[in-house]
Specification:
The chain is mostly helical. It contains 2 helices and no strands. Helix 1 runs antiparallel to helix 2. The longest helix is centred in the first third of the chain and has 22 residues.
Length: about 50
């Protein structure tokens, strides 16, 4: 249950960051990279917060 919550929240964070990056005028590939980076970096933080 813990892993599902962490991963689902990371996906939501990645989608939000990627969408906002795309809307700010960056290319699609740049927005995808920003979203993936945000999702990947948020997993350890969320894991430590949600215990």
């Amino acid at each position: 249950m813990h892993a599902a919550i962490v991963l689902l929240t990371a996906v939501v964070i990645g989608l939000v960051v990627g969408g906002l990056t795309f809307l700010s005028g960056f290319s699609t590939s740049g927005a995808v990279l920003a979203g993936l980076g945000a999702a990947g970096l948020s997993v350890p933080v969320l894991r430590s917060l949600i215990r």
